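Homework help board

Subject: predicted structure for assignment chain

Our instructor gave us this sequence and asked us to write out the predicted structure in token form, then describe one feature. I got the tokens but I'm not sure how to describe them. Can anyone check?
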Amino acid sequence: MNEKYIELRSDLLLLTRGLAIETSEYFEDIAYQLNYIETRSPEPDLKIRVKSVQHEIDSANRTLLILIADPDRKDAGALINFITYSQRLKDKLTNFANISMAQNQIDNKLSN
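My token output:
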């Protein structure tokens, strides 16, 4: 992007912002849930957040595919990796949450 001086248009900036916000909130929910498990308080449900992040990723993919087909939108191709990395990050966060929650449950059983 820097070498070819590609500037992102506002629609793509909003797309990246929305995806970044959803992913950040998912990360915060995971941290919040892990804290709840440690204190044995009720757990927040991460399934809703995962679906919300995945919906945002799917929506971004659909939007990006339409924009890539437009030869005047050279900025759209620059975000393909961003969407891919966002999907991978969501998957890694989900795996981390599952492993951490399972480990906390094992630790709680062993301490009882």
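Reply (TA_rk): Your tokens look well-formed. For the description, you could write something like this. Helices lie at 10-39, 46-68, 80-111. That's the kind of observation they're looking for.
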